[in-house]
Amino acid sequence: MIRAYRFRLRPTVRQAQALAEMLRDHCSLYNGALQERRDAYRHTSKTTVRYGDQSVQLKEIRGFDPERQGRWSFSSQQATLRRLDKAFAAFFRRVKAGQTPGYPRFKGVGHFDAVTFPKDGDGCRWDSTPHDAQTRVRLQGVGHVRVHQHRPVRGRVKTVSVKREGRNWYVVLACDQVPAEPLPAPGSIVGIDMGVTHFLTTSNGEEIANPRFVEASAHDLAEAQRHLATFPKRTRRRTKKHRAAARKVAKLHAKIRRQRLDHHHKAALDLVRRHDVIGCERLNTAGMTKAPAPKPDPEQPGGFLPNGAAAKAGLHRSILDAGWGIFFGILAQKAESAARRVIPVDARNTSRTCPECGHVAKENRVTQAKFECTACGFLANADHVGALNVLSRAGLVLCDAA
Ligand SMILES: [Zn+2]
Question: What is the distance in A from the centroid of ligand 1 to the CA of 320?
């Protein structure tokens, strides 16, 4: 199994300064390499500079500027060049597909916030078994930085990344050969329905609420954003207050992200502990975030019939979807570790199908919350009905596979 671990770094003032310089210099390397590709593309009759060409120049660049570029790990600089290469590959892929993507952009120092070391032991060293019980990570040009390691790291550390979020620093480890930790089998199968009023409902009728605290933070965020908007958008020099307002917005964003992730982890762990097989809906992210096609009105040339775009937008479907996608990712990971099975099923009509008689009708769903079958009169909570249908479809998948 592959797993990522993320820990807070506790750098000294000196180390924090060095970390910021490391980001700054990797940023200028990134932008310099981007400039070279741009110039080549424009002036030298559309030739393309490739990663290999830029990588061989690294040695020269380091020798030319030992103070700034020569100080950092060669491999992490290669990783930064590869990151640019990826941006270009994505750009050209989209051009080829007939889309109109934006050309890769220069990154401002404040927006370049991660450096990756592709191999533990090369420019960095993860050290979790020191003498003084304090985990540290050694980073070339920075030193031995203290790590707040709140959980054991299993498996083999493959890559080490350093990330800045607001004023905080984190280290992210990507590990492979992480042993699975199977849980005792509870002998249970369940279906889940993701919802708007509740985060999710199970086929047993249990509800997991949406995280309340996220709403509270969202309120703070809206206020902080309003405050930030009172400052002029483009200024030569930002004032101290302007910077503080921007920092507050970034901080709240990070807080909400953390809270939401925490909620996802707890909900997923709870499901995985109690059930062997978990049926869930298969997300169609591309189809859901795309606005429905306009429907021309045959009666009135140039006019359009309602196409359901407003209803979709009203539910914030795309936003919810993004969150659910992350949740399903976490669920799949925990399920794999515990030797559980997650079965994604086609979720079409799950909220319109009667679990008793199988009658499918839009009218079955009376309101957002209430389900009443127009054929047999079966009455239930609508989200619960959705979960029951997901369960029976997951059961069919199991049956077909047996
Ligand atoms: Zn029915």
Answer: 29
Cα(280) to ligand 1 centroid in Å equals: 22
Q: What is the four-CA torsion angle of 202, 208, 210, 214, rounded to 10 degrees?
A: -140
In angstroms, how far is CA 136 from the centroid of its own chain?
A: 27
- Could you tell me the distance, in angstroms and rounded to a whole number, from the CA of residue 363 to the centre of ligand 1? 12
Q: Return the number of other C-beta atoms located less than 10 Å from residue 280's C-beta.
A: 26
**β-strands 143-148, 3-10: how paired?**
antiparallel
Q: What is the pLDDT of residues 306-329, one digit of tens each?
A: 555 444 444 455 556 667 888 999
Ligand 1 centroid to residue 377 C-alpha, Å: 6
Please tell me the CATH code under which domain 189-211+255-401 is placed.
3.30.420
Give the mean pLDDT of the chain: 86
Tell how far the Cα of 329 is from the centroid of ligand 1, in angstroms: 34
Q: Specify the pairing of strand 168-176 against strand 156-165.
A: antiparallel
Q: How many CB atoms lie within 10 A of CB 263?
A: 20
Residue 381 CA, ligand 1 centroid: distance in Å: 14
Q: Which residues of the chain have pLDDT under 70?
A: 44-47, 129-132, 235-236, 284-322
Q: How many residues in the chain?
A: 402
What are the start and end residues of each CATH 3.30.420 domain in the chain? Answer: 189-211+255-401
* Tens-place pLDDT, residues 164-223: 988 899 999 999 999 988 888 889 999 999 987 788 999 999 999 887 777 788 888 889
Residue 324 CA to ligand 1 centre (angstroms): 29
Mention every residue, 6+ apart, whose C-beta is less than 8 A from residue 253.
221
Cα of 194 to ligand 1 centre, how many Å? 22
Instruction: Quote the ligand 1 centre to 349 CA distance (angstroms).
Output: 14
Contact call for residues 202 and 190 (beta carbons, < 8 A): yes
